[in-house]
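Narrative of activities, Objective 1.

The group set out to show that a structural description can be obtained from nothing but a protein's sequence at a throughput compatible with the screening campaign. Below is one input-output pair from the validation batch, recorded exactly as produced.
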Amino acid sequence: MAVWLVVAGAIGWWAAFQLTVERFHLLADPDAIASCDFSVLVQCTANLESWQGSVFGFPNPILGLTGWVAPIVVGMALLAGARFARWFWLLFELGVLFAFAFVIWLISQSIFVLGTLCPWCMVTWAVTIPTFYVVTLHVLRTGMVPVGPRARRAAGALMGWVPLFAVVSYAVIAILAQVRLDVLGSIF
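Output recorded for this entry:
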């Protein structure tokens, strides 16, 4: 889990950094074309310039620049042998839950409202989803969230299934994108 948090955090942070750079580029030159704009369907500009791209009044990638530091720090601390209090894990889970819910909302906005797939956003989705599963199962299996011993054992057993959960989640997103946006039809 610790290694995953560091790797996911680094990947998520890099994607947020790239989106932030693209946003600055577009702010400096409104006529510019973002380097991640590959087609009408696969692009960053529509997402970055929409109200959904700044839902809290500032560009969403800034959330990633700050938020992805937490999994990196927690993962590195765990690798160093740190142990965290229950309140810490509950707050960390709350942050990961917020990130997961926000990503689900952004996915729905991207597919059903904006009609685009942002490459760097998809990288963020790809690491947020399994991070949510890993952290949630961890707080359940360790008893940080008060559940019975049976639920703790189940959460521990399900930890090995996180890659499958992630792949199924990606497949659901891909199917939704295909049905709504005809991704394959636009490529071929």
